[in-house]
Amino acid sequence: MGHQPTFIEKIAEKVGLIPTLRADESPLPSLTEPGKLQGFPPPEKWDDWEEYEATGWARKEKKKYSIVPTTCFNCESACGLLAYIDKTTGAVRKFEGNPYHPASRGRNCAKGPATINQITDPERILYPLKRTGERGEGKWERVSWDNVLDDIAGKIRKALQEKRHNEVAYHVGRPGHEGYMDRVLKSWGIDGHNSHTNVCSSGARFGYNLWHGYDRPSPDHANADFILLISAHLESGHYFNPHAQRIIEGMMAGAKLAVMDPRLSNTASMANYWMPSYPGSEAAVLLAMAKILIDENLYNRDFVENWVNWKEYLEHDHPGTSLTFENFITKLKEVYTEYTPEFAENESGVKAEMIINVSREIGKAGSRFATHNWRAAGSGNLGGWAVARCLHFLNVLTGSVGTVGGTSPSAWNKFKPNFFDNPPAQKFWNELHFPKEYPLAFFEMSFLLPHFLKEGRGKLDVYFTRVFNPVWTYPDGFSWIEALTDKSKIGMHIALTPTWNETAYYADYVLPMGHASERHDINSYETHSGVWIAFRQPVLREAARRNGKPFTFTYEVNPGEVWEEDEFWIELSWRIDPDGSLGIRDHFKSPYRKEEKITVDEYYQFILNILKA
Amino acid sequence: MRKYGAFEVENSSYEMHLKKLSENELSNSSTDIDNGIITKNGKAIGVKVGNEMVVGFPTPSRKQEFFSQTMNEWKWPEYTIPTYIKSHVHPEKIDQSKGEFPLLPTFRLPVLIHSRSGNAKWLAEIANRNPIWIHTSDAANLGLKTGDMVRMTTEIGYFVDKIWVTESIKPGIVACSHHIGRWRRQQDEGNRWATQTVAIENQGDGKWKMKKLKGIRPFKSADKDSSRIFWSDGGVHQNITHAVHPDPISGMHCWHQKVKVEVAHPEDQYGDIFVDTNKSHEVYKEWLKMTRPAPGPNGLRRPLWFARALRPDDEAFYIK
Ligand code: SF4
Predict the structure, then answer these.
(1) A500/B188 Cβ within 8 A
(2) A127 in reach of chain B (CB within 8 A)
(3) Closest chain B CA to residue A542
(4) Segments of chain B assigned E as strands
(5) CATH number of A129-192+426-511
(6) Are B316 and A427 in contact (CB < 8 Å)?
(7) What is the pLDDT of residue B11?
(8) Which of A24, A226, A272, A467 has the smallest set of CB atoms within 10 Å of its CB?
């Protein structure tokens, strides 16, 4: 007799974690009498949910909760969360997954439920703070929001009136919203957006963009036959939890996984092929794979012939050659001659044999070939952008661009909201963000800012940092400290942050902003094939609304005087233009109440109504 | 939306490049007979493939661009097609006999998020150290074992960390995880779950030192758990010792660092950091030399078809 499934295996079979080992086996023995086990509280009970109190276990104590959905803000995925609000105390007690969220489907990584730590952190910043000593000295006093808003608004107003538009900038770490700030900055008419992207994903984005004008991949892992990752998506990375679920789903259905990484990550440890490439050699390996697909006729002729600009290539690089597809293939073979598996092995240390095997698997998978590079090699190396370019080359050759089980451009899987008002594009170009030396830079040259200031290329009068900590996260943090403590270079530094950080120590104002459950945002990300939209909301505000409690602003229900940014920018913009003469106020007037200032509820009402229609 | 928090707009969206252009879209458009590009009001809106008039991709050719005329026009003719570019940490630039290694400083841990999770006690409890990953054979060559201290010298300074000897990294390479090594000075508040106390000394002329005074310690607060903190290390801040490496094309900071790994000096203490910002400015200038500045064709600052997060008016794309 063969292997008898163990109890654990039977459970794993039952819940679909592993395929059924013995179809004809007796059913799973029951440990208890059948009860009403549920994964999640049913939505009809979310307003009045009762469960046993964990800390009162032996006493069988029950607690009543109001359950309000929001989204996690501890990475870019914006997975769904359900906030359990204690009906007696009115406090958020815990966060669990939201089964109705199309990307996370009820599941979270450790950082999701840990949101509760962040909102109850005894050391969180609860009130606006103003520096009292020298900048960076670490001396603060509590000030009123009213004074803060007036002070900053006055300074911005002056800069705009004096046409010093390029001296006002907003530097963002994790945006977490769809277009909100772009609208605000446009309404001020400034080229004032600076981001973190050039220390993050610009490399890969550039490579993808060159191919097809979209800068991010959206692999359809769940339907793939072969998955190639230059990343660690089973443990981290962009859209980690939603991707991890689908990679495993794909593998459960038979997909094979290859991971290129010099480190045995958790992801590489789950792979069928771990390709420990020397850092920076990835493009060489990928071109060797491309060569095998071409040489062994494993490419998708239909897609390549119709959808690649090969005629333009022949015309430019091989003038006089007649424009036939056969000639293109011949030239391809010639131009990549040196990229043999042996050459790739020599550069990368990955065995030639493995490169050949993986290439043939890719050829076999054809249009069901999912790939991903986000940071990793793309962000580590000079010319790292070529990694994504060479990776996508494999998708093009196999015709797996935008197919079932293939790799789509991000924008196909992302929702773009319509706003109640669209200010015109700004007329300024800020060379502190996009200097002439980097005409192709995919995002702002943000990490060079201290060097640009040092060289006297410009100055900043009002500088917002928001969920952004360059002193710690960026390279060369001491140059940031030097820039931030020099008032002739940065006139005013305002740190918008839910928690203290090394950059906020060097601010003039530290303004507390809400965590995931204390703010509004619209989220939509390319986590899989499909398009979804999620709503981050201040959960205590929604609970107050349900209970008919009066409030106007989110800070009234948040702890201390923690604001949400949406309301902050509306208030600030309104005050920059007290008489409307700058034309800014026009962009913050309610679409529903004439001449009145828009509320955050109206802002989202407008977006969601269009969506419903 | 307020009730369920999320919903699906479409449950699948494949092959959108094959979307046919409508009659309306096609009216007053023209199609180039050579390359099939369909233009309307001076803008490409799609492409003719076979007999179909479809949207294609948002590139100048409306197709997948194996060949990039943009790279050609913007002075990078050597990179018009997919190419392999040798990294700044290519073996040719690393002298192993001098103890040089490429440092991989970027890998993320599943439970932390950059510098934003220092206020989450459960997460700090799980991950609070960032030793240097080094292969068994390299550690043996250096005569080191797990827990020993090394001085990691970058182009602009150094940091002192401990090593973790493992088979899980390729020989000849060292790695150090991101997120850890958070600090506060004695006068600063916050994140005591994850920050160590440091002293920063500005020695003048761009020279900076950081010394660890205290690791993570239990503290009294409204949350009883804060007096139960049992972890104490807190790791070492590595990024602050990295030079900037702007890729001359994509603008990406190229994170890998060439480092010299050596046994810590007798005066070194765990967590010591030294940086010379004048040196970092020099490295910046060296990388700046690799660029090929604007203007591009027609006096452009940037290709018009390239996106920008906050896109200015087209007029602003031209250098005046
Ligand atoms: S993957 Fe990201 S968004 Fe999802 S639960 Fe984890 S931290 Fe939150």
Answers:
(1) yes
(2) no
(3) B2
(4) 6-10, 30-31, 37-40, 43-49, 52-54, 100-104, 132-135, 149-153, 157-166, 174-175, 183-185, 196-204, 207-214, 257-263, 273-276
(5) 3.40.50.740
(6) yes
(7) 85
(8) A24
